[in-house]
Amino acid sequence: MPERTEYAPGTPSWVDLSAADLDAARAFYSRVFGWKYRDEAAGEGSVHSVAQVDGKAVAGLWAAGDSPPGWNTYVTVQEVDGAVSAALAAGASTALEPVDAEADGRMARIVDAVGAQVSLWEPRKRAGAELVSEPGGFIWTELLCGDCARAAEFYGSLFGWEAEAMPAPDGSEAMLFAGREGPVASVRDPKSSLPPTWLVYFACEDADACAAAVADAGGAIAIEPIDAPFGRMGAAVDVNGAAFAFIATNPEYELAA
Known about the structure:
Blueprint: E1 12-19, H1 22-33, E2 36-41, E3 47-53, E4 56-63, E5 70-76, H2 80-89, E6 93-101, E7 105-111, E8 117-123, E9 138-144, H3 148-159, E10 162-165, E11 174-179, E12 182-188, E13 197-203, H4 207-216, E14 220-228, E15 231-237, E16 243-249
Parallel strand pairs: 1-4, 5-8, 9-12, 13-16
Antiparallel strand pairs: 1-5, 2-3, 3-4, 6-7, 7-8, 9-13, 10-11, 11-12, 14-15, 15-16
């Protein structure tokens, strides 16, 4: 379902980028994914730049300020304040207390039980991304951490996600998370010393062409495109140092946000 007007609770519904250089980020992703932008006032003189594909909102970009650059994953919840309380009871801590995002919705950010930050979104005017799984839209989000079992326990408690083992291209431990409407996310142990994080995947038509566009736009390829059961994929770092992944999906394998 590429065009979306609503998301069930427990479904990743939005992604946004904290960028050290917002103008550079906009130029980079425009070259890589063909994004166009609509700017919105975001209070205190800041700007929220909404990335669009075919006139549909696919992601947000912000000036990071003192925050490190990176992509953030938002999961829809029925009620943010209650979800934060449940997260704290399950072993999380609070990175951003619940706050209204103008009339669009209410949000909070937590540090989950394995140390990764994830945002919670209570929709009002904005349900989330208006287009997903199409080239230029986000298609998947994956938790990279060293304790998949603890992550499965935490998100099972918080969102009711059910976990099952799944194959990973590099043979590492991985699990698929399923919500009310089917697969929603995954968790994988990358055997890395990097801190736990949620990695956002964007859809593309051709993974090798996308990798070339990243390099041409001033980014760096972290993982060269490889074949996996669900498609051909790679990972990159943008001009601000934010990591993301890209995938040209195998039409015979269902992988959708």
